[in-house]
Design a protein that fits this description.
With 216 residues, the protein is α+β, with helices and mostly antiparallel strands. It is built from three helices and 15 strands. The protein has one domain: Jelly Rolls. The termini are far apart. The structure holds N-(carboxycarbonyl)-S-(naphthalen-2-ylmethyl)-L-cysteine and fe (iii) ion. Its cofactor is Fe(2+).
């Protein structure tokens, strides 16, 4: 019997509010990590993590992939959602049921009912990789929240304002944490500080972030 898994399932989520409509659900994904990682492996066999370039030609330090009806890509033509993986010219892998179920539960717990994401972006960070301050503006629906699942090495997340130069608060995100961003907080600038070297027992020397979105 897996007593620890049972114990996790009974832990109430520790909720931290970091914005008017932005909540960190500490450890919310922990009871489902095994299923998430199995589903993730399956997705990444079909659409592997790869380096992408910004429209300005800079290589992103995180490696990316996607699943679901729409995947996020960037190249010299710009940022966009596309139904096809540019590596294979085939549809992105199907959104795993485990992602959908967990994202809906997290969105509900944060007060957003009926969340049905059609896009899932996967970011993999090796030590030193980061994500510069940016806004997520490519999603058609701005009323749906974004649900993000952190796995592996911890990160220091930067949560800013509506101008790039606004002050940022720093929030540590750990393996199993889920963040739900909605409403007034959806267009805030945000980023990830360079990941510190370390080893995670399940993920090794990396951090994986899975974001679920309603993009179409
Ligand atoms: C706050 N990813 O993929 S996830 C991204 O940890 C992205 O990989 C980061 O920013 C990561 O676009 C942060 C959390 C996140 C996602 C979307 C947001 C925070 C957000 C949209 C608005 C405000
Ligand atoms: Fe973002």
């Amino acid at each position: 019997m897996d007593l620890f898994a049972e114990q996790d399932l009974q832990q109430p989520a520790r909720v931290e509010r970091i914005g008017e409509q932005a909540l960190v659900l500490r450890g919310f994904a922990l009871p489902r990590v095994k299923e998430l990682l199995a589903a993730l492996d399956c997705v990444l066999l079909q659409s592997p993590l790869r380096q992408m370039h910004t429209p300005g030609g800079l290589a992103m330090s995180a490696r990316l992939s996607s699943c679901g009806d729409l995947g996020w890509t960037t190249d010299r033509h710009g940022y966009r959602y596309s139904p096809l993986d540019p590596l294979s010219s085939r549809p992105w892998p199907a959104m795993p049921e485990a992602f959908l179920v967990l994202a809906e539960a997290a969105a509900s717990a944060a007060g957003f009912s009926g969340f049905v994401p059609d896009a899932c972006l996967i970011n993999a960070y090796a030590p030193g990789a980061k994500m510069s301050l940016h806004q997520d503006k490519n999603e058609r629906s701005c009323t749906a929240p974004i649900v993000s699942i952190s796995l592996g090495l911890p990160a220091i997340f930067q949560f800013g304002g509506f101008e790039r130069s606004d002050p940022t608060q720093r929030v540590s995100l750990f393996h199993g944490d889920i963040v739900v961003w909605g409403g007034v907080d959806r267009l805030r600038f945000h980023g990830v500080m360079p990941i510190k070297p370390g080893h995670h027992s399940l993920l090794g020397e990396q951090r994986i972030n899975i974001t679920l979105r309603q993009a179409g």
